[in-house]
Structures are given as C-alpha cells and as structure tokens.
Design brief:
The protein is an alpha+beta fold. The relative contact order is 0.26. About 40% of the residues lie in helices and about 25% in strands. The protein has a three-stranded antiparallel sheet.
Length: about 70
Amino acid sequence: MKLPVISGKDAVKAFGKLGYVTVRQTGSHIRMKHQSDGSKNPLSIPNHKVIGKGLLRKLLRDAEITIEDLYDLL
C-alpha cells in the first residue's frame, strides 16, 4: 500500500486517536508522548504542509502501526 501525503496537523490528529498527547511545541515541531504506555517511543512531528515519506515511515515505526492502520485513522 502506498503512503498517504499528509500534513503535520493531520498526523497529530491521527496519532492523537492512538492515545498520543501533545507534550510541548518548539517552533514548528510538536512533541507527542503516549498517554498510558510509557514504553512507546515519543514522536516529534513537524507542523508542515507535507510530511516527507521517510519521516512518515519513521513515525509509523515508532508508533508501531502499519500504513493500513494510518489510513483507518485518517
């Protein structure tokens, strides 16, 4: 399945549905941590119009979800 082209704002909403909450924002980068599972890696999402494919793949890996899961969240 092909990676979707999404914005930082859409990514924050999608990961929020998984239980991630915004901890802080520095400049245009939003830092998110999982609310209940401390063993999951924190995510750093740029608040840009388009997130690069490499970064999106890394975010999916860190959140331990698949591309199909991401489509379901969008």
